[in-house]
Specification:
This protein has five helices and ten strands; from the N terminus they run αβαββαββαβαββββ. The chain has helices spanning 4-18, 37-47, 75-83, 103-117, 138-153; strands at 23-27, 54-58, 64-69, 89-94, 97-100, 123-130, 156-157, 164-171, 174-180, 186-187. A five-stranded antiparallel sheet has the order 2-3-1-4-10. Strands 5-9-8-6-7 form a five-stranded mixed sheet.
Length: 188
Amino acid sequence: MKNNSELEKEVENLEKDLDSIDLLVTFKEGKNGFNTEIKGIKEIELALNQMKSYYIKETEFYNSVIVDLMIEDPVEAVQLLKKTPTEAIKKAVPIDTVVSSAKDNIIKAAIEISAIKIAKKESFSVKYEFRSKFPNYVDDVINKVPSEVCRNLNLKYNDNKPDWMILIEEMGTITGIAIRRPEEILIK
């Protein structure tokens, strides 16, 4: 078993490596055990072929990759993915920040970014994807993010037609957080 300083160093190294997460792309489940990752990567390459430079990194999860972009606004890449016919891609999310997967860090980051992006009279919804198994905090995050954002920022929760979406993308020891307008993400 690793001690705290070893775990902290490991998380710090992961955060440094993943500081450049611009876009998280998730693939659909394959039929009959078929892995859609290879097809999904080809679809990303086809959609982004007109961009100057990008780099696709695999994650520890077979159905997700990270795309580092050499452009200022990752929403531009999402728009290119939307224009390209795809079969394997399920979701593309521009990531605002990456934090360690401790529940307090996730909740705090969601509140801080929401305070910057969401105006007082706008509404939001929250979507989650937990890729690993953290049963000890999943329910807390699912319940506390919407309630704390409402309580701390006096915003309205609206799951039907929100002005903004808070996306919590857990990837093991790190979690990507995005606060985006619905048209700025791709969800199929």
